[in-house]
Amino acid sequence: MATFSEQPDVYLKEVEQYLADDPQSNSTRLKQITARLQADSVLAEHTAQLLGTAVGKQHTWQGPYRENGILEHVVQNLDLSTHPSALVKQYLRVIGNSVADNDTNRAFVVKYLPRIINCLSVEELRFTALVVMYNLLTEYEPAHDEGAHLRLDSTLSEYLTAGNVSEEAIDYAMDLLTWTTEKLTPDQLLDTTSTAVFDNILKLASQYDDDNVEEYVAILVHYLQDPNFQQKIATPNTFERLVDLMYAFESRLTVEESQGVFEELKKQADPNKITSEELGVILMVRLINSISAMSASDAFARGFGLQSAVIEMLLSKLTSPAATPSKVCCCVILGNLATSDEVCIEIVKDMKLHITLIEILSSESEQALLYAAAGFIRHLAFPSSNRPVLGEAGLIEACCKLLVYSDPSIRGEAAAILCKLVSDGAANIDIVLFRELPDSISPTPLPATAAPENPKILYHIVTQALAPSAPLPSTSMKNPMIELGRTIIAILRYIRQSSNSQMGKYTDAMFKTPAIARPVARLVRQRFYADAKAEGILGLGLMAQTPDGSACVVEELRADDGLLESIKEIATESRGGQENNATAGRDYQNAVVLLHGLANNGVDVMSAAMKSDVEELQTELGKLMVQ
């Protein structure tokens, strides 16, 4: 085997010529080169430069470099304390070109990753070291894992934040940062290092660099998917910066992308299931969902109030004329803040934010925004003192409009708002019973039922309670049929409990409404919501306490021959011990009251057969009382 010259200049020319040939011809001569790398640093530098260039041009040298000690020598000598940086740079080039698309060499080099990371500390080596790590980690999971273990993400975020990564190297650094972040363990995500990394990335994202902002936001939302991490960083300063970022990122979206965000946000059943393939849409949706989720945390409730600076930002956005995706987030955050009567009253009476929300609900806005605004204003209706203010401001009419939407979740929220508004409130009950339905809304026709000439809002509630509805995306959402039935019962309960001498006109208006008992009877007949079933019997019982009301109940018994059997089933099953004592007693007693009312007030409108059935059931329930 020929040997290389001892003359440095001749040696280098011979090595260059040798490396230009096919490495399969005589790769064992590489052992001589390995030995010469241990000579003076200048010769070693030039030799390493030739080696790096050769393997970069011909990847077929990668195997021989590993087999003949070249690769081992260069990784073991990545030592800035004993070698000049110029030599280390050439060693890095050899490593980077040796691991490109070669998992065998990567497996050998990955254990030396700490030495490569150390090279980042020298500015003249930083770009080369980043390229080497990029080649090492590209599509090689073990290197991703090792990078995460060594917290390469932390090192890179510090260099990026300090502006110590050159423009040409940023893309490499961003890919490395992304790969290692994705491999962090749950414990790592929650440690102090991750908190610092997140803060650094948030600083970088807040610079609104058009070239890399999507990568920064992607890393941020990766952290924000963890509920425990959300709690950890839910400080006023961080939350405000995230909201700022959300607004800035939103401003970059095209009209089509904004529409795509709205389409994704309306899928309330699973907010993490995103079908869009547009990165801007995906990131905006995840950012909105993450910030919204943070606002539901205990940490948020403890750290924020209506006077917080970030709340001012949210209010400004919410009251702006444009319908933007971030308004959905504003409604959710403010709704989560409105958890006490004191806050809700301040929002309505002092801030008058309900006017803006009603304007949104009255507009042809996006489905996701309507749903979020409805959820927020439903919170505001919890304090009884807010309800007349909301009703007088037009919320009842706005809800009437929402009831005709095809989306069941929006219909359910509108129905739940109406139910809350009429609870213990004469002013809103007055609106529902006596105010005509707006001309822009046409009541849904009922089979074999003539609509009133000037239908009131109550009639619209009845028809919408009976209208077909699509399935709800989630069982946690409000069911429109259930909530509208409860709305009617809430009015009945108020009328029954009131000592006002004017209640006669209320009962007249109530029982003159066509099919008024049908939504209440539907509650009894449905089988999914046990509480609503019991409320239905209560509602029918309240109706049966007057002749006009009994006539309405009898009308439903006549139309539905299974209704009386359902009443019997609920009363006898609960009394038979299948439910807890409190529930059993309530359901049984409500059934007894209903039957007693029918027997006393419905005699003139019941057929002989129906009267017999009612009396028979009364007797049967009476026996249960004795038992």
Automatic annotation (TrEMBL):
Taxonomic superkingdom: Eukaryota
Keywords attached to this entry = Cytoplasm, Endoplasmic reticulum, Mitochondrion
InterPro entries in the record = ARM-like (IPR011989), ARM-type_fold (IPR016024), Armadillo (IPR000225), RAP1GDS1 (IPR040144)
Q: Which GO terms describe its cellular component?
A: cytosol; endoplasmic reticulum; mitochondrion
Q: Where would one find coiled-coil regions in this protein? A: none
Q: Which Gene3D superfamilies match?
A: Leucine-rich Repeat Variant
Looking at the keywords, is Cytoplasm present?
yes
Protein known as: ARM repeat-containing protein
Q: Where in the cell is it found?
A: Cytoplasm, Cytosol; Endoplasmic reticulum; Mitochondrion
Q: Does the keyword Methyltransferase apply?
A: no
